[in-house]
Write a structure and sequence with these properties.
Blueprint lengths: L2 H9 L15 H31 L7 H8 L3 E6 L19 H13 L2 E4 L4 H8 L5 E4 L4 E3 L15 E3 L6 H14 L7 E4 L4 E4 L8 H12 L5 E6 L2 E6 L5 H11 L8 E7 L5 H10 L3 E5 L10 E3 L2 H17 L1
Parallel strand pairs: 1-2, 1-10, 2-3, 10-11, 11-12
Antiparallel strand pairs: 3-4, 4-5, 6-7, 7-9, 8-9
The structure holds magnesium ion.
């Protein structure tokens, strides 16, 4: 049979009688639509169940505020606050991540009543420029650059202006060198920005097209292969590069408790609030201490060592207000 005859045979097949639809859409479409609707309903139900299950394990620190207070009763509360995504919303341009005046007042109120530290991946000076409260402790560069309050604070044990801890100071020249190399090599990827956080670096890709994320990570890794003493981790739309020394936000928390005179104290109740993977180190320290609580800021279920959750910075502000009010009740 020739191709032509095969074609002709198909062509010559008896014509099907025209289908008549008694209703629209046809039954087959209705079935597909119903299946799609059922599928998305099941997906939504599964997501809701997952969320409910997660909330049971990590309840809202606002809903459970009285339980938090009960656990802290008779103990010295010490506050630790991450900055980005905790006190300020995550924004496209990291230089625009300002905190609101209301949030600043909430933090000021807490700092008047409890020793309070900001623990951030940012350069310490930059996070200070955002927060602008001199009565706080600041731990920048993921805790690798810690300084005491520069203003009079009844909670400050250390001398004002004193830099308390810089465990990665020998890495300063290499961080600067890698910053220059990364800035040059990532210039070809629109939207990528390299932030020098003094003792560590951040490569932000919030403004990079998703199909370029892989290429950006490959570029960063290719620069870092010449620097085996630096470690790459991923956060929320950011690649973090830091010295591979064993020093993280958890160590910073322990260091600050010690600096404030609470080493080995059973009478202290640290509260750490953060939103990202690097905050997990601090949550783990609190778990292992068996003291205080970690609060993860997240709207979606995430693997975490935190005990409680808050959805977003506005809830963090409300939690801080409640804490201030509870102290006024005492
Ligand atoms: Mg954060």
């Amino acid at each position: 049979m020739t191709k032509h005859s095969a074609f002709s045979a198909e062509d010559a097949a008896p014509a099907q009688p025209a289908r008549r639809f008694t209703s629209y859409p046809p039954a087959s479409c209705r079935t597909a639509a119903a299946q799609a609707a059922t599928g998305s309903w099941l997906d939504a139900a599964a997501r809701r169940a997952e969320h409910d299950d997660w909330m049971e394990k990590h309840p809202s620190a606002l809903a459970e505020f009285e339980a938090v207070l009960g656990a802290a009763k008779g103990k010295q509360v010490v506050m630790f606050l991450d900055y980005d995504g905790t006190l300020s919303p995550i924004v496209k341009d990291p230089d625009s991540a300002v905190m609101t005046d209301e949030m600043r007042e909430a933090v000021r109120g807490v700092a008047e009543r409890f020793p309070t530290a900001i623990v951030s991946g940012r350069c310490r000076d930059k996070v200070f420029d955002f927060v602008r409260l001199a009565e706080l402790y600041y731990a920048g560069s993921h805790g690798m650059d810690i300084k005491g309050p520069t203003a009079q604070s009844k909670h400050a044990k250390a001398k004002a202006e004193a830099v308390l801890c810089q465990p990665a100071s020998e890495f300063l020249p290499v961080i600067d060198e890698v910053c220059r190399a990364l800035t040059a090599s990532t210039a070809a990827i629109p939207g990528a920005t390299v932030e020098n956080n003094k003792f560590c670096l951040s490569v932000h890709f919030r403004c990079v097209q998703e199909e370029k994320w892989r290429a950006l990570e490959d570029l960063v890794r290719s620069v870092l292969k010449d620097y085996p003493d630096l470690l790459l981790t991923k956060g929320r739309k950011v690649l973090e590069i830091r010295p591979s020394i064993k020093w993280d936000k958890g160590n910073a928390l322990q260091f600050l408790l010690e600096a404030q005179g609470f080493a080995d104290s059973n009478n202290v109740f640290p509260i750490y609030i953060g939103d990202d993977r690097t905050d997990e180190d601090a949550f783990k320290v609190l778990r292992s201490m068996g003291q205080g609580i970690g609060i993860l800021v997240s709207k979606i279920p995430k693997e975490t060592s935190a005990s409680y959750s808050l959805q977003e910075p506005s809830e963090v502000k409300e939690f801080l207000h409640k804490l201030v009010k509870s102290k006024q009740r005492d």
